[in-house]
Design goal:
By secondary structure, the protein is α/β, with parallel strands linked by helices. The chain contains twelve helices and seven strands.
Length: 283
């Protein structure tokens, strides 16, 4: 039987630290007690998970197209404009599977693009929270944001600050970093349970390499002209510093990852953080 009320759970941590694997382990543990878990993200909403609703589905889809256009900020690849590769309609764009087919980097990316991309995502998070996350939690579902919205927004802004074509001065972008940190501190966007996965970006990168998985778009500084492993590590380390400070200010739970297994991390989260809220002390 489902808990009477659900929970809103969010995680922060470097790319590749194991959030997806951990979330699936948590799903299995909660299913044993009859509690449903939904993972909510912009990408999953695009794929129709959970089941789409008339509002805000169309807005989510159209903004997805323009967010990608902005992220590349007028840049070019092999002297061809990335903007010209992005169609105007969602159906055409979705067929491209941009995460899998688009280049990691581009030349001449203007800082205004990634900056606006991040701010678009921050604005959309209010819609996702109001129209998807909170209604599902009210139905008794544990709703997990594997990557709290602050993460992709912060990455976009840090990339904007590093762009060589700084059409928006870097000091302006840095002020926006401070402001979006304040935005995500708002009680409306804060989860019931916030978890900082405190892990080494170098370990995350090594794990991905062993799994044969490459770096994804906006997971390194390629859009600002820096490539290679150090580009990934630099962005992830800078993000981690911001995550650590923000999570401490927000009162989130710090979970040291180290060499622990997903099962061990899952036990600590479910038994120590979720069970008391779902079923009471001693559950």
């Amino acid at each position: 039987m489902n808990a009477a009320t659900g929970l809103r759970v969010a995680m922060l941590g470097p790319d590749g630290i194991g959030k997806t694997t951990l979330t699936e382990a948590i799903r299995d543990r909660l299913a044993e007690r009859g509690v449903e878990l939904d993972v909510v993200s912009w990408r999953r909403l695009i794929d129709g998970r959970p089941a789409p609703r008339p509002y805000p589905q169309t807005a989510v889809e159209q903004l997805w197209v323009e967010d990608w256009r902005l992220l590349y900020g007028g840049g070019t690849v092999q002297q061809s404009s990335v903007d010209e590769r992005i169609p105007r309609t969602f159906d055409e764009f979705a067929a491209l599977r941009a995460e899998e087919t688009f280049p990691l980097g581009a030349q001449g990316v203007r800082s205004s693009g990634p900056l606006a991309s991040g701010l678009v995502e921050a604005a959309l998070d209010f819609v996702i929270e109001a129209e998807v996350v909170r209604p599902r939690a009210a139905e008794g579902v544990v709703v997990v944001r594997e990557s709290y919205g602050y993460k992709p927004v912060l990455k976009a802004l840090l990339i904007a600050a590093a762009c060589q074509e700084d059409t928006v001065p870097s000091e302006v972008v840095q002020r926006m970093v401070e402001r979006v940190t304040d935005i995500y501190a708002d009680p409306f966007l804060q989860p019931d349970v916030g978890i900082l996965l405190d892990g080494d970006p170098g370990t995350a990168h090594a794990r991905r390499s062993l799994q044969g998985r490459g770096v994804g778009v906006a997971e390194d500084y390629a859009l600002s002209g820096r490539e290679g492993a150090q580009s990934f590590l630099s962005l992830q380390e800078e993000c981690t510093a911001h995550f650590t400070k923000a999570a401490a200010d927000w009162g989130w739970y710090r979970l040291a990852v180290g060499e622990r297994t997903p099962e061990s991390l899952c036990d600590e989260i479910v038994d120590g953080l979720l069970a008391p809220r779902l079923w009471g002390e001693g559950a």
